Q: What sequence folds into this?
DNA sequence: TGTACATCAGTGAACGCGCGTTCACTGATGTAC
DNA sequence: TGTACATCAGTGAACGCGCGTTCACTGATGTAC
């Protein structure tokens, strides 16, 4: 309740626009997102939306940031509510939070993690922050787990030199302490997590292949936890 | 060179239509795929394409099948050319073939494995066959590797009962002999493989995060091979 | 081999629709004195 | 507290564009006898 009535009305309208925009995302997809349709649902003439949003692309950016933030909020909230001692459990909770959000908001998930929208390029300055919240949560979790001695990196495929170099840079940039193997495996786990979720959201498993996709996902998460050597507090 | 000249012209035109369609997929994306634009590039009036394709959706189906088949062909060809004895190597070759194709044909990859096209539902009778060639190649490869004693399933997370039940059904359906753990892990490896490729094709790693994405992918593939316990011929 | 008919590819006009964006405007709200 | 002015939300018309699909048509190609 700050500012003039006009200010508050503006904030309200901006929220309405993103809400309606997300509805349209769900029914028609990002590529068909249209300012005119949003204006219609907003009960306003099409040119009026230009008072709030410079162009269709700016609306897309708005929805992108809104989606990233909603996902980021939910993931952080879920992890914060989980066991503070067992980092394996925290990882499982994080993964499930991403999946739950993705299944509830498939259209926004598709915008963030699916095919790029043709002709649209996200402005990095605005989207990088919100867009990296999940991976930052994952990195933080792994770092704490490593520090707590809850990670025993499995042996196996050696990290190629160029990957080791990249990983070294990342370690320094984020102030991490885990070994190359862990960081490299963590990147795989991150990509694999979204791979599993995308398969489910984008319907890549056939219609009748799995009777209990949730159990399948939980199992996949558990194997991914094994892959990074996350033993937990045992 | 079969049939009348008219028949041959028709086959040629059908090929032109799918070729042009795929070009448009690359420049404008699936959601913006338009029969009129295809007609323009074909050098023909818009209504003429209806002699070849019943509707826009049918063109999408054509492109879907064309893409699945091109990917299937390349994957099968690559695997066939690989070492006949070492199934770990065959797996790596398979994974690389998928990635190579995906990077060369990002738009078609997006159509097959990215966000669903709003308002379009693929006709299962036509697409299921071509659409399952990669997973069938993977399943066949794992089955042979298991039979050849080149798989040592790692211990770790237990397979939940409902997943075990699904996996049992799949085992019988495809006449497989591997244990539950292997089949369940194989499903993860499948989803994870596409997760890694999607991250790369859809630009989810930042612009400057990795200097050598190919090496990163090779490493990820190797870890996935470890995950299913694919030791190879040693 | 020649002719009559059927099939088919492609035309051009039309239908009704939606889109992004600009612009001059009206009238309400906010601000400075 | 009242008034003059500036700011802003929303209007309605317009621009030029592209879309899917239908339909009656022309002219070429193929087929049956």
A:
């Amino acid at each position: 309740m700050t500012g003039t009535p006009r200010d508050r009305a503006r904030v309200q309208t901006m929220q309405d626009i993103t809400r309606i925009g997300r509805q349209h995302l769900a029914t028609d997809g990002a590529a068909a997102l249209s300012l005119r349709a949003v204006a219609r649902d907003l009960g306003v003439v099409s040119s009026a939306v230009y008072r709030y949003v410079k162009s269709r692309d700016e609306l897309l950016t708005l929805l992108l940031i809104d989606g990233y933030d909603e996902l980021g909020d939910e993931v952080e909230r879920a992890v914060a509510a989980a066991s503070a001692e067992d980092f394996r459990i925290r990882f499982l909770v994080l993964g499930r939070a991403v999946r739950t959000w993705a299944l509830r908001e498939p259209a926004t998930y598709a915008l963030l993690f699916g095919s790029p929208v043709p002709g649209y390029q996200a402005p990095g300055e605005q989207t990088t922050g919100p867009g990296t919240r999940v991976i930052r949560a994952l990195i933080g979790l792994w770092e704490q787990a490593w520090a707590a001695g809850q990670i025993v990196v499995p042996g196996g495929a050696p990290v190629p030199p160029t990957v080791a170099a990249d990983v070294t840079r990342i370690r320094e940039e984020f102030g991490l302490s885990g070994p190359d193997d862990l960081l490299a495996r963590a990147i795989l786990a991150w990509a694999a997590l979204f791979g599993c979720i995308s398969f489910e959201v984008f319907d890549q498993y056939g219609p009748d292949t799995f009777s209990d996709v949730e159990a399948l996902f939980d199992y996949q998460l558990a194997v991914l936890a094994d892959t990074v050597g996350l033993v937990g507090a045992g």
